[in-house]
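Q: What structure does this chain adopt?
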Amino acid sequence: MAISHLPRLAALLGSSVEALIGQPAAAGKRGPAPKLQQQLEQLSRLPKAKQRAIAQVLDSMLGSQT
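A:
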């Protein structure tokens, strides 16, 4: 997934970019749900081709939300 997608993904998930990449979130901000965090970690371990396919699906879904 391209790094440029992180802000939009974070907003959709009600999270911060820092939380998505594993950095401590600023005080008072919620991070992603534990299951979602696990899914993001699993995504980062997939082969790049599968990551791109998932990114395309997310882009399609996020694009339909606007």
